[in-house]
Amino acid sequence: MRRLLALVAALLALRPAALATDPYAFFDWDVSYVTAAPLGVKQQVIGINGKFPGPVVNVTTNWNVVVNVLNDLDEPLLITWNGIQHRKNCWQDGVLGTNCPIPSGWNWTYEFQVKDQIGSFFYFPSTGLQRAAGGFGGIVVNNRDVIAVPFGRPDGDITILIGDWYNKNHTDLRKMLDKGKDLGIPDGVLINGKGPYRYNDSLVPAGIEYETFNVHPGRTYRIRVHNVGSSTSLNFRIQGHNLLLVETEGSYTTQQNYTNLDIHVGQSYSFLVTADQNASSDYYVVASARQVNESQWRRVTGVAVLRYSNSRAPASGPLPDPPQDQNDRSFSMNQARSVRWNLSAGAARPNPQGSFRYSSINVTQAYLLRSTAPVWIAGRRRATLNGLSYAPPETPLRLADAYGVHGVYTLDFPERPPPASGGAPPRVARAIINGTYRGFMELIFQNNDTRMQSYHMDGYAFFVVGMDYGEWDEDSRGTYNKGDGVARSTIQVYPGAWAAVLVSLDNVGVWNVRSQNLDSWYLGQEVYVRVVNPEDSGNKTEMAIPRNALYCGQLHKYQKEQTPHHKMGVSAAVPRSSPAAGLLVSAALLLAGSFVFAP
Hints:
Blueprint: H1 2-12, E1 24-36, E2 43-48, E3 57-60, E4 64-71, E5 79-82, E6 107-113, E7 119-125, E8 137-142, E9 156-165, H2 170-178, E10 188-191, E11 212-215, E12 220-227, E13 234-238, E14 243-248, E15 251-258, E16 261-263, E17 268-274, E18 283-289, E19 301-308, H3 330-337, E20 365-371, E21 375-377, E22 380-382, E23 388-390, H4 397-402, E24 427-429, E25 433-436, E26 440-447, E27 453-457, E28 462-469, E29 487-488, E30 490-493, E31 497-504, E32 509-515, H5 518-522, E33 526-532, H6 579-591
Parallel strand pairs: 1-4, 3-8, 9-12, 11-19, 20-26, 23-24, 25-33
Antiparallel strand pairs: 1-2, 4-6, 5-7, 7-8, 9-10, 12-17, 13-16, 13-18, 14-15, 14-17, 18-19, 21-22, 26-31, 27-30, 27-32, 28-29, 28-31, 32-33
Helix pairs in contact: 1-6
């Protein structure tokens, strides 16, 4: 045992060190195709260790997370961690701007710390429309015991993944986009990878497997809901039960009850739900399409069941009604505005969230990012921000910087969109934003498309300070919320409307700003923000390149080859909360050759 621990300690010393006093959680994932039929049609989905969806990553503030990923797909893979900030460590972000994708048959180990974070997040594969095939799962970051939580301890914790779903494989969806086609109306909505309960015989075929959430009467549960779908906003509701909103994407919110809440693509919320109804029957759990023509989208509804332990009958009858405002967009926007920051609650640290007074900080950079419906550029259908459609280079941006490779990108992303008439035509570009370290940036998302969009920023939580219909102008700043705008990482932007956020650029790295709608992202609606500390020469504000970094593009010569080893056959690793137990798991993986380090 002593020799084993000494070996593991020596091997761990080769990697960039996180805080040695904080626990480690180790996971071993075989990412592969799995045959499933969630809507009754057999198809190829992406599973983790043979399961669809993937496992919940359950950790605590400041833990170190080590995830060894074997790519058992037939195409490259990256996993990104939606809402995890990767402080000083964009090398683990899992997007093409920072990482070379893991080749088919290879494995790569992510190692990052959930530094100063709490809350509800999720992970997913970030390239080639793969999220439309699965590969996603929830992330729970618990408070440390020494930090007070602004509500009583729940009796249980439930993760719910909702999302629109197509019966076509993601490779077929990709081909549709490459040919200039729309993806069309989804075939349905999944809840935790399962199809709808048969609430309507004409809409739901027999034999569909549905999800059941088992609860006990009188108990209260924390329910974490994530929209992991491709492009559809969903209204979430539980028949007969209030949803007490308490947190979104790492921020505690002011606590208020909702009978339903619109959850947009890429967003995460957590609620307290008390099983306080009678048990005469089970209750419907519903996620239905929003901001669409309801009569044409009836099938795009996910239905699960909430079952009391003493329930006496199955759920029956009509579903609980959605908001009656399919053509009145003000209800949804007002609901979004009602989500506010809890100023008195602590989060990852004991000081109140509201001690950071964002309204007193001067804005140093401002970008108005305008999206439109897809356009044709050089014979291909593309999506743009400010007239530019991003095309990922073969060499990741951050890796190019580290090795002094020039010409990979430009730092001239426009601060404003081109004029509606007489401006430069849309074009494909690799222009990114040059962020000022410790600056304070304003991002205004203007959605001039006819459908909902939502936008995400890696590496940060931004403050949502305003949204409204119409065109944003300088006077719009007078409507901003200057006190309790919630801090989160994904913001919805309604058609013909704008949303404004403020972000403190204190996290060095190259960070992705993207449309969360998969088709828009795939077609180029993204940009990167480069944040560099010009005074850091000793890795104080950014970690060094990981010793297992993958190399591609113009840096491919540095990459040592791996022998592809498909179908590893190792069972799922169990997370370990203690450093000693983590060493034992590490030892087994290292001795089995599962940890592979590139130069």
